[in-house]
Design a protein that fits this description.
By secondary structure, the chain is an alpha+beta fold. It is about 25% helix and about 35% strand. It has helices at about 45-50, 75, 95-105, 110-120, 135-150, 165-185, 195-200, 220-225, 230-235, 265-270, 375-380; strands at about 5-15, 15-25, 30-35, 60-65, 65, 80, 155-160, 190, 205-210, 210-215, 240-250, 255-260, 260-265, 280-285, 290-295, 305-315, 320-325, 330-335, 350-355, 360-365, 370. It has a six-stranded mixed β-sheet, sandwiched between helices. A hairpin with a 2-residue loop joins β11 (about 240-250) and β12 (about 255-260). The longest helix is centred in the middle third of the chain and has 18 residues, at about 165-185. The two termini are about 35 Å apart. The chain binds adenosine-5'-diphosphate (ADP) and magnesium ion. Magnesium ion binds next to α1. Magnesium ion binds near residues 43, 44 and 159.
Length: about 375
């Protein structure tokens, strides 16, 4: 029984400014949940309230079904990893990791095995006899993670534990963390501003902005069915294209139009999404870069084939990202160059592309709320 339940938490540090407003979510027993949001969203504050390092202005926190109100951090028995962790400088890495276990009277043999296994996974086995000052920043961070993980705690709270590591090590740690969580059957609440970490590691993601929970769901749900523009553009890399548009009825045809950009949408699509009442209204169109496909000059004039100019090109091995200029807007197009054709031209050259109406998201212009989600392979299978 180690689930965490956050119920309608608010936190006000200074009068009139809510750092957290009515935050509710759960971390199930043995679940790996991400709290994802940009800097200043209120993630660390949430974690500190759960850990008992600070008190909420209202709302309550339950650990294993029991209210944590009045419990000290130690009584809550949650293991926390901070982004910057201070270790005991006079102790070796082994002793630093052993410290929380010795405090709890764990038998020597059990302790050695736990530390050995955890150190293996974290790639710090060769460092066990060193002292903190003899380690690089990245090594220190891994030791800090190890020290939290060797403990049998109710749950583990991690505040951006790998964001200080270099890209290669982060990629390695993403994989290892996920394995470690499975192996330990640990309940983890992991705070991050990095959507890639959340998407690749999390069982579920709580997306937070400005102290308010925006959406809770699996990585797939968050990516495919973002509830608003914030979530839609925060999750996914390269991020979703957005364009102010109008939904228009042109003769008998429905079009999503923004400047020169124009996508004709079938009436069935309008009906399916109940959009008839939105005729003439401003909307924000969203389309992920991988849902736009390149077309050739022979395709020009076909339905939903558009032309823009190449503004910038990024080649990433077998993938290419084109920034395409179309009436003062930039649309990003992500392509996998399976054909080996190479680049489609120089900066400034015209480029043709095709937009599939099933790849479109639409958002309410004023509230940012999603009106339409793109169809996915998942939908087709269902
Ligand atoms: P995150 O971890 O998502 O970057 P934080 O929880 O650290 O965000 O901070 C959220 C907001 O709360 C920030 O605007 C920050 O300045 C404010 N804040 C955090 N702690 C305090 C505090 N002790 N006193 C006043 N304001 C604070
Ligand atoms: Mg923080």
């Amino acid at each position: 029984m180690s689930e965490l339940r956050i119920e309608r938490i608010s936190k006000v540090f200074s009068p009139g400014i809510s750092t957290l407003s009515d935050v509710s979510f759960e971390v199930g027993d043995r679940e790996f949940v991400f709290l994802l949001g940009p800097s200043g969203a209120g993630k660390t504050t949430t974690l500190r309230l759960i850990a008992g390092l600070d008190q909420p202005s209202s709302g309550q926190i339950l650990i294993g079904g029991a209210s944590a109100a009045g419990l000290t951090p130690r009584e809550r028995d949650l293991a926390m990893v901070y982004d910057k962790h201070s270790m005991y400088p006079h102790l070796t890495v082994f002793e630093n990791m052993a410290y929380p276990l010795r405090l709890r009277g764990v038998a020597d043999e059990v302790m050695r095995k736990k530390i050995g296994d955890t150190a293996d996974i974290l790639g710090i086995s060769a460092l066990l006899d060193r002292r903190p000052r003899e380690l690089s920043g990245g090594q220190q961070q891994r030791v800090a993670i190890g020290r939290a993980l060797v403990r049998d705690a109710n749950a583990y709270l991690m505040d951006e534990p790998i964001s200080a590591l270099d890209a290669k090590l982060r990629a390695h740690m993403r994989v290892e963390f996920k394995r470690l969580q499975r192996e330990l059957s640990a309940t983890i609440l992991y705070v991050s501003h990095d959507q890639l970490e959340a998407m690749t590691m999390g069982d579920r993601i709580v997306v937070m902005d400005k102290g308010v929970v925006q959406q809770i769901g699996t990585p797939r749900e968050i990516f495919d069915r973002p509830v608003n523009l914030f979530v839609a553009t925060f999750v996914g890399e390269p991020s979703m294209n957005t364009l102010p548009c109008q939904l228009l009825q042109d003769g008998g045809r429905w079009v999503v139009q923004g400047g020169q950009f124009r996508v004709e949408v079938p009436e069935a699509w309008i009906n399916r999404h109940k959009l008839a009442g939105h005729a003439g209204k401003p909307v924000v169109m969203g389309i992920r870069p991988h849902r736009i496909t390149l077309a050739d000059s022979v395709d020009v004039g076909q339905l939903n084939v558009e032309t823009g100019r190449i503004y910038a090109v990024e080649t990433l091995g077998s993938e290419t990202i084109y920034d395409v200029e179309i009436n003062d807007q930039i649309l990003r197009i992500w392509t996998r160059d399976a054909s080996g054709q190479g680049l489609r031209g120089q900066i400034g050259a015209p480029i043709h592309f095709r937009v599939d109406p099933n790849g479109l998201h639409l958002f309410d212009c004023e509230t940012g709320r999603a009106l339409v989600h793109a169809t996915t392979d998942f939908d087709k299978a269902a």
